[in-house]
Amino acid sequence: MVYKWNNSEESVLEKPFEEVPCRSWVYDESSVPGTAATEMDLVCSREVFQSLVNMLFMGGIFVGSLFFGVISDWKGRRVSLYLSLVLWILSSLPLYFVNDIKLLAVLRFLIGFSGNGIFMNSFILAIEIVSSPYRSLVGLISQILFSVGEIIICGIAFLERDWHMLCLLSAVIYIPCLIYWFFVNESPRWLTSQGKFEEAQNLYRKIAKTNKIEFPEDDANLEAPIISNTKKGSLIDLFKSRILFWRSLIIFFNWGVINMVYYGLLFSSGDLTSNLYLSSFLSGLAEIPAYIILLFTLDRLGRKPLYCTSTILSGIACIVSGFAHVWGKDLPWISTTLALVGKFAISSSFAIIFNLTTELFPTVVRNSALGLSSSVGRVGSMLAPYIMLSLDSCHCFFLRHEVRICQKQ
């Protein structure tokens, strides 16, 4: 908004300046040559569209979590993973040519829809192909690789600052993954839960042969009548049992809280330093030590004590960071360090709730339960962009941190 000087005597006395809407904008592209926001003029009165696109992305994750969770338990992890891969590629490639906010919003929704399917199915496949003692290890390694991907994309974005090209790269990098169909096997636990015991037996034999160990044919045959009669499950089963019902409600609530806090910190990571790329790098880097510590403590100390500790630590760090920003402006590194501690702690909570969800529900509804939990969690992450926008308009850095801890209580 600009102001026009009224030089008439009456105008000067009553209202010396007249508001005139902006007709064009000039952007500082010294650090970032061009973004979707600058190309589509998503500023001033149109700034809300930035939050809308972020919300639709999270909305895509919300719907995709439900969809791929059900598909995974119905048709298998392998089919669901491949379907999400194909959809990601088809929705990412057109972003290279996009210059319209409506099309951008639709494609971002589809990317969120398919992206969570890729991660969720990969995560379930990874933990179901190993024995129970190694599930938490494999799950945490998956989380570490996710954070490594965050760091790598920061480096790529620093070298290639054209957002169209970044979107193209995100599609092209997944094209070789299409050959997974010929190399990635179905989850043996899903096969047994569906009564496909012979296929599971063959897969177990293949795994045993690869690891050069003898497959216990006699023990497996004794289990066949039991496993082949395993009941197929659905989302409705989560609410039939009283134990599963209350367990589901508690898990859903925690997913919502963790997502709101995690993405609230993620969306405000640009406030950490004056350099956007460095801020994003530090935000991703803060997660890795959290997962490494969990590798050595999760099985020894237990899920619940570590989950409660990390969640409380995140809240305290965010509150103190807010105070440090308001009353310690001469020492900005204190606020930055505390914010990174908050990201470190909430990342631990995120990893633990992921593992807890897969461990607390039976195989027949495991991916459906994870998908529904993730969907409920996305309600919190969908609210995060609007919370950040409303508080940014008030310039309330302290309140942004304060809200995060209030969301925990």
From TrEMBL:
<keyword id="KW-0812">Transmembrane</keyword>
<dbReference type="InterPro" id="IPR005829">
    <property type="entry name" value="Sugar_transporter_CS"/>
</dbReference>
<feature type="transmembrane region" description="Helical">
    <location>
        <begin position="79"/>
        <end position="97"/>
    </location>
</feature>
<keyword id="KW-1133">Transmembrane helix</keyword>
<dbReference type="InterPro" id="IPR036259">
    <property type="entry name" value="MFS_trans_sf"/>
</dbReference>
<feature type="transmembrane region" description="Helical">
    <location>
        <begin position="52"/>
        <end position="72"/>
    </location>
</feature>
<feature type="transmembrane region" description="Helical">
    <location>
        <begin position="165"/>
        <end position="184"/>
    </location>
</feature>
<feature type="transmembrane region" description="Helical">
    <location>
        <begin position="137"/>
        <end position="159"/>
    </location>
</feature>
<dbReference type="InterPro" id="IPR020846">
    <property type="entry name" value="MFS_dom"/>
</dbReference>
<dbReference type="Pfam" id="PF00083">
    <property type="entry name" value="Sugar_tr"/>
</dbReference>
<feature type="transmembrane region" description="Helical">
    <location>
        <begin position="277"/>
        <end position="298"/>
    </location>
</feature>
<feature type="transmembrane region" description="Helical">
    <location>
        <begin position="103"/>
        <end position="125"/>
    </location>
</feature>
<dbReference type="GO" id="GO:0022857">
    <property type="term" value="F:transmembrane transporter activity"/>
</dbReference>
<feature type="transmembrane region" description="Helical">
    <location>
        <begin position="244"/>
        <end position="265"/>
    </location>
</feature>
<keyword id="KW-0472">Membrane</keyword>
<dbReference type="GO" id="GO:0016020">
    <property type="term" value="C:membrane"/>
</dbReference>
<feature type="transmembrane region" description="Helical">
    <location>
        <begin position="305"/>
        <end position="327"/>
    </location>
</feature>
<feature type="transmembrane region" description="Helical">
    <location>
        <begin position="333"/>
        <end position="356"/>
    </location>
</feature>
<protein>
    <submittedName>
        <fullName>Organic cation transporter protein-like isoform X1</fullName>
    </submittedName>
</protein>
<dbReference type="InterPro" id="IPR005828">
    <property type="entry name" value="MFS_sugar_transport-like"/>
</dbReference>
<feature type="domain" description="Major facilitator superfamily (MFS) profile">
    <location>
        <begin position="1"/>
        <end position="409"/>
    </location>
</feature>
